[in-house]
Design brief:
With about 325 residues, the chain is mainly alpha-helical. Helix content is about 60%, strand content about 5%. Helix 12 runs antiparallel to helix 13 (about 285-295).
Length: about 325
């Protein structure tokens, strides 16, 4: 009776998401994260990490990624070999968190000449769990050098390379894994992390968009995507600040940020700088009019809304704001 051999991928994870999510998607790894909204209140050297109530989504990227050996045939289950039994015992030890016991089993299999991706992959997992990323990289490279090649080894190789600060190499390995496992969210999450480490914010957003598209109902992925857009926005304005520190758009963005914080005087000053930098820029005079109206500085608001309407006479928002300004003036009008 001819036996067929296959690999079963089992992923164990530490996660903040409900266990039901993993019943729906057994290969999904979701990780806790720390985040809060980043505010543009000045020029920073680079986008800051967002901090908040949750931990980073990729701070602990992979707890265990194991390859299990399943032997069988088309009609009946065959008896596993002694080698397969030993490897299965190593996997069980690794699942139980017994890194020393698992290492002994897989190291012994290696000494006995067993050349299987399973052996080197799980030795890599053990090294990675101990924080020995240099050794983990060596083991994962040995695993992918043996046929058949397994994308999970590429994924974890990328994780360890990223931990070592070898961003370009990590990106190459994670891109390879993404081509092999395009439906696996964890691949795109790790690739997004690698892009962020390389300050390629646009590529990071694109990867997180893929994650969100894989499961549009998962709020965690939508949150990560939204946070990435915030970081991309901050990076864009910081780049603009380096190119043109007196950019009208930069002052406008700062005015918007101050207005959202309720710091109206600072917002007005920022919008006024924007108007001086580019008097023909739409929306700046409108924003000034709205702020001045809020502060009951009616005549100043009237001047600003008239300037806005000269630029964009068809603007519905400007027309509505002028009506509010005129209504506020009416009790004192002659």
């Amino acid at each position: 009776m001819q036996a067929n051999t296959s690999w079963l991928i089992l992923i164990l994870m530490e996660s903040s998401l409900p266990f039901s999510i993993f019943l729906r998607r057994p290969m999904t790894i979701s990780l806790s994260y720390s985040a809060a909204r980043s505010r543009l209140t000045g020029v920073r050297a680079r986008p800051r990490c967002l901090a908040g109530r949750r931990r980073q989504a990729w701070r602990r990227p992979v707890v265990l990624l194991l390859l299990l050996w399943i032997a069988g045939d088309t009609s009946a289950q065959t008896q596993p070999s002694a080698s397969e039994t030993n490897l299965a015992a190593g996997v069980e030890a690794l699942k139980a968190g017994d890194l020393d016991g698992a290492e002994r089993i897989f190291a012994e299999a290696r000494r006995q000449g067993v050349r299987s991706p399973l052996v080197f992959h799980n030795l890599g997992v053990i090294a990675q769990q101990r924080g020995s990323h240099t050794l983990a990289v060596s083991r994962f490279r040995q695993a992918i050098a043996l046929p058949p090649e397994y994308a999970p080894s590429r994924l974890l190789l990328g994780v360890s390379l990223l931990a070592l600060g070898k961003n370009a190499e990590a990106i190459a390995q994670l891109q390879h894994a993404a081509r092999s496992m395009p439906q696996e969210p964890q691949v795109h999450l790790q690739l997004a992390k690698a892009y962020k480490a390389s300050e390629n914010w646009i590529a990071a957003v694109e990867e997180l968009q893929k994650v969100a598209n894989l499961d549009p109902r998962e709020a965690e992925y939508s949150y990560l995507l939204g946070r990435a857009w915030t970081e991309l926005s901050a990076w864009s304005f910081e780049r603009l600040a380096r190119l043109n520190p007196d950019s009208a758009r930069l002052h406008q963005a700062l005015g918007q940020e101050y207005a959202m914080q309720g710091k109206y005087e600072l917002a007005i000053a920022a919008y006024q700088r924007a108007a001086r930098s580019d008097p023909s820029l739409p929306e700046v005079h409108l924003a000034l009019a709205l702020l001045l109206l809020e502060l009951n500085r009616i005549e100043e608001a009237r001047v600003q809304i008239n300037l806005e309407l000269r630029l964009v006479p068809e603007s519905k928002a400007a027309i509505e704001t002028r009506a509010k300004v005129e209504a506020a003036r009416s009790p004192t009008s002659p």
